[in-house]
Amino acid sequence: MKYTTHIRRLFFALMREPLSFIEAIIKHMPGRLGGLSRRHIYRHLLRADSDLNISTGVTIKGFSNIEVGNNVSIMSQSFLYAEDAVLKIGDNFSMNTNSCLVANGGRIYIGDNVLIAQNVVVRAANHNHDSVDIPIKDQGHKGGAIHIEDGVWIGANSVIVTDVTIGKHSIVGAGAIVTKDVMPFTIVGGVPAKLIRHRTNLTE
After folding, report:
1. Among candidates 147, 150, 185, 189, which has minimal Cα distance to 172?
2. Each residue of 36-85: pLDDT tens digit?
3. Residue 38, Cβ density class (10 Å: 0-12 exposed, 13-18 middle, ≥19 buried)
C-alpha cells in the first residue's frame, strides 16, 4: 500500500514537471521573444483577456484561481499568489516592480484602471495568533477579502491588510499601511493610514 502511494505521488509529480520547466524558462526569458512567450502561454494558464504583459522574474502561483482583464501589465520581480484563493483583476491594470498580491487563503478583487506602484504588499490573509502557548507559525492563517475599486492609485511601499475596501478613485500615499476602509475620492497616508483630504466634493 505504501509502495503504491509513492508510485502515485511520483506519477502526479512527473505530470506536473513539464509545466514547471516551461514556466521556469519563460519566466526569465529576455527580450521580445520572452515577452511574447509569456503573453501567449500565461493567457492560457490564467483566465486572461488580450494585451497581457508580464515582465521577467514574475512569480505566479495558483494560475487557475486568477482572472485578469484586458490590458494588464505586471512588472518584473512581482508576485501573484492565489492558492486556495480568488484573485480577480479588472481592465487597464498596472503593477510596478517587486509588488505582491497575496490572496492565498482569501480573496482579492481589483477593479478597472487601478495603478499599483513598486514594493506594495496586498495580503488577504493573516497569521492566527490567539494562543500564547503555540508558536504563531503553527497557528495557521485566517483568510479575508480585499476590494480595490475602480481608478485607485496605490503609492510605493504601501501595505494593504485584509478585510478592507479601498473606494473608487482614491489614492493611497507612499508608505501607508491601510488597516481600515478608504472612502471613495479621498487621499490617505501614514501609519496607520488616515484621511489627508478629499479629491472632490463627491463621495458617492
Report:
1. 189
2. 877 777 877 777 777 888 888 899 888 889 999 999 999 999 999 998 89
3. buried
Selecting among 40, 127, 147, 169, the annotated active-site residue is 127
Active site residue 127: yes
**Sign of dihedral through CA atoms 63, 69, 75, 79?**
negative
Phi, then psi, of 63 in degrees rounded to 5: -50, -45
Residue 98 has φ and ψ, to the nearest 5°, of: 60, 35
What's the mean pLDDT when you consider all of the chain? 86
* pLDDT above 80: residue 17: no
Nearest to 123 by CA among 159, 158, 97, 76: 159
Is pLDDT at 125 greater than 60 in this prediction? yes
pTM over 0.85: no
Residue 23: how many other CB atoms lie within 10 Å: 17
C-alpha cell at 195: 484621511
Query: Span 125-133, mean pLDDT?
Result: 79
Task: Name the strand (E) or helix (H) holding 2.
Answer: helix 2-28
How are beta strands 186-189 and 194-198 bridged, if at all? antiparallel
